Records
---
Amino acid sequence: MSGALSHIRVLDLSRVLAGPWAGQTLADLGAEVIKVERPGSGDDTRHWGPPYVKDAQGNDTREAAYFQSANRNKQSLTVDFTQAEGQRLIRELAARCDVVLENFKVGGLKAYGLDYESLKAVNPRLIYCSITGFGQDGPYAKRAGYDFMIQGLGGLMSLTGRPEGEAGAGPMKVGVALTDILTGLYATVGVLAALNQREQSGLGQHIDVALLDVQVACLANQAMNYLCTGRSPKRLGNAHPNIVPYQDFPSADGDFILAVGNDSQFGKFCEVAGLTALAGDSRFSTNKARVANRDELIPLIRQATVFKTTAEWVQLLEAAGVPCGPINDLAQVFADPQVQARGLRVDMPNSYGGVTPQVASPLRLSATPVQYRNAPPTLGEHTAEVLQRLLGLDSAAQAQLREQGVI
């Protein structure tokens, strides 16, 4: 079957994570995605190792695992667009594409004639998505933006980490570059919306996506807690600001998560845990009361949970209809029967004769399912094919460009 976006061609000028994540999502949905990279070096993340992908003999290649996380189903084209001939190639490709993705600093591509207005002149139907740290305007627009920095500036780290007064207290970033990932997903949504609108107008448009905007938008209920009260939420570790008990608890062999979402579930938990008196206690009988009295309730629960193993708690609480779960490391994640049943690991043959493991797309479309067509490409793997197929450049013309260092 053809993918849902098999009629769409994307020119991906982005690098590192946010832009490439958007490009990979579009590629997974069937779009033809041409990743433009610098000759000789390519995307910075190709070198962000170890670890590296293995070849047929099990030896490390030069391809970092980081790069592999965001670049499958793409074609790699090397072009030096600081040169006039390279700029010409990019403009000619943009004329034949539906979407351009880029994450250069504001105005960074204008000097090369590759900004939105310049490419719009050669392709009025072009959808041009710019991903930056702070957006196209405002006092910070010229600044570079990085996930870690944005997690701090955008408030996420003020909410993440152990509370003041506890051992290990202090702000903490999320364990993956979550702001980059969310920005890539918002960029994808914007591209899909613009493609849909183009069906009515026949025209493309410019999409301005900023890491800071995305981070603030994704503060969700915590942002609303602040806006409604004027008080900044504090770090609660693994606890929830609005629901109690909703956090990690110690077990006989580790820790587990208890996620009580309503008063009925709290009563069921108390029955299983032998804490029935707590369910009828006016300090704890409603969620509002439990939030107000969490400092009294949590120690009482912790005293009870240490007498059973995590597996025992999960079995008992699931049977009672109380949400709970283990805290897995990644080895346990990929060994989990549900993860395996959903096929969340995909092994793809790579250009080195080995296999590149991938995390499957979470998108499940019944009529146009995601297809895993090719592993993340080696640097410049598709340069000759793309230039011949789309621009009609024969081997002699390409040889001249190669001699000039353009490709």
---
Amino acid sequence: MRRYDTSLQLIPESNPHMWDGVQKAGMIAFSIGLLGLVVSTLGGGPVYAGIGLGLTILGALVYIVQTRKDGPPGIKNHYIMFSSALSRGYLGWMAAIFMTGFYIILYFHPQHLKSLVVLVNPLQVWLSGSSAWNDKGEMSQWFLYGFLYTVTILVMGVRALIKYRHSRYQILRTLSVMFFQLAFAFTIPNVLAKLNDGLYFEWANIWPLRYYELFPYSVEDLLRNGALGKFMLFWSIASILVITPILTYFFGKRWYCSWVCGCGGLAETLGDGFRQNSDKSLRAWRVERWLIHSVLVLIVLTTGLMWLNHIYGGSVLGSLSGKFSIAYGFFIHSIFAGVIGTGFYPIMGSRVWCRFGCPMAAVLGLLQRYFSRFRITTNGGQCISCGNCSTYCEMGIDVRWYAQRGENIVRASCVGCGMCSAVCPRGVLNLENGPVRNRTGIPV
């Protein structure tokens, strides 16, 4: 693209992908760090893991902080579809393969991450009071996973804060997901486990997202752990039956999906650059509705059957009771939510799991669609059909279709990220909480 000044001389528009010296140094450090991490998985030892992790974090931060000098505050939405990394080019596919490969190793071949586990084990012992190795010498990779997950959200959260520093809503939303991941999803559960003989509880996750939270064995484990365990059980039940409906009524599903949830936090930070790759077709919308509600039905049935089997002493399912949980954990929690849900960011957009599989998102979506005051209001007379809103919708909603007609957007899938409003050059879209209306359009 070129623009003209008053003297009619051609002035080339700056390309945001032309890095300065500091950004190049940061990217070099980041690349060397990734290489060190790869070497550590091949038996390179904790030294390579430490150097790799340190350089990866340092390089990313150096590059990210320097982007504040790329121009004035605001969302720069040009050149996106010309970027190989951001528009399903070869760099995007390489990123998808790398991220998918990491999750496969994490879930199914954790022995390759031994060097990284050794590296963070002192932190695990200090924070949670337990080692990554149990009395039988078996290694657990899950503290490492939580650590890397949290560090990623914090580092990429800095990027989001810089990128969206012109928007108070985006700044608060980013700070919120960073805080809830660091405090309620990582630090507090580990500290409480140290203080209460290994009792681990993820306060930021709610059933049915944390699918095993209300399984019989989980409930019994909480009841055996005194007053704190009973409070955790009370919190689990109140979260889904009381807190969720009330907050969704007033704020829509955004209160959780865009402000609290760790899955959403990773999507909004690490996955932010890939949001434009979500499929906006009607076919994708149909698949979305079938898949996400099928997963919700599946976990409700699984939980119900396990309780029936528990109440009747195993006479309902017998040995199949545990297999239901294992099957759900493998196919949905590990493959769908983990490997596909995160690894496919560069190919299918940043909300693959949230859009197509998350049962908590399905619950919140039904409440939002039929019970909530939240909607995105539009002013069709001001819409110029530029398409920025649809392009940047990570949930695959064709926002422009609604904006052109002046129709309010009340979709079950909308997570209220506010990006459509932020990229609109005419101020057509606004996130609002209004009175609930019945089918005749009369406020109730």
